[in-house]
Design a protein that fits this description.
Length: 254
């Protein structure tokens, strides 16, 4: 049973009107930015920030970084690890979980396709469901690749704590007052901030604690901000992490 033609026409006109309004608004914001002296790229970015909610922009950024991470993973390269810096991996603890989830998603994709075909579902709907399922698998691969290619980083200038494409915190070395190893198995989430304590966990675990002399601003995955003076995070190599922080700290003091 198809929808009445007037309903379809009204829906199409509404969609066209919304897109036209968005286009006009974007152009006006772009022109306003240009008149204020901004370049074309800066004006376009400012217009996008005004039109698109921050949460939506961050989801789009996650997608872009995730797909870029797939390319880096295939090329066996890492993001944001400069010469002389120490990369601190953290993906090993969750690799088996991600592989199991990807396997289950692949099985589910095949099972749903066979079921829809057996039920005689129209090809258009089957293709749509298949595309969504395959995209979910690609996203799962991208999440895993991002965690592999975007490790924590210790350099002479900063400690960079990350979680894939979702979180990135840069801590200047001068703010680090102490570092110690302490394992926790009951972290409530991947990225949490409570009472000035930041936790960046993998499989509900952290094993390194960094105390700061001054608070740093933490930007959570969806854009919320908080202050933290203690940073807890997980790494596959806590001993090497402690040594790298102490070694880089001595170089920085020198």
């Amino acid at each position: 049973m198809s929808l009445p033609a007037p309903v379809i026409l009204a829906a199409e006109l509404t969609a066209v009107s919304v897109f036209a309004l968005e286009a006009v608004t974007a152009y006006r914001l772009f022109r306003a930015g240009r008149r204020s002296g901004a370049g074309r790229r800066a004006a376009a970015r400012a217009a996008a920030r005004r039109l698109v909610p921050e949460q939506v922009r961050r989801f789009m950024e996650f997608d872009v970084k995730g797909m870029a991470s797939l390319v880096l993973w295939v090329a066996r390269r890492r993001d944001g690890v400069p010469p002389g810096a120490t990369a601190l991996p953290y993906s090993g603890e969750q690799s088996s979980t991600i592989l199991v989830l990807l396997f289950m998603m692949a099985v589910e994709t095949v099972a749903v396709e066979l079921l829809l075909k057996a039920l005689g579902v129209p090809d258009g709907l089957r293709v749509l469901v298949l595309v969504v399922d395959v995209y979910g698998i690609v996203v799962g691969l991208a999440v895993g690749a991002a965690c592999v290619t975007r490790p924590h980083v210790v350099s002479s200038e900063e400690l960079r704590v990350r979680y894939g494409a979702f979180f990135d915190l840069r801590i200047p070395r001068r703010l680090i007052s102490s570092v110690r190893l302490s394992r926790s198995y009951n972290e409530p989430g991947v990225v949490t901030v409570e009472n000035g304590r930041l936790g960046v966990a993998v499989s509900s675990q952290t094993n390194v604690i960094v105390e700061l002399a001054e608070p740093v601003t933490v930007v959570r995955p969806l854009g919320r901000r908080a202050e933290a003076t203690t940073v807890r995070f997980f790494t596959d190599t806590p001993g090497a992490t402690l040594a790298a922080l102490q070694r880089q700290g001595r170089r920085h003091d020198a």
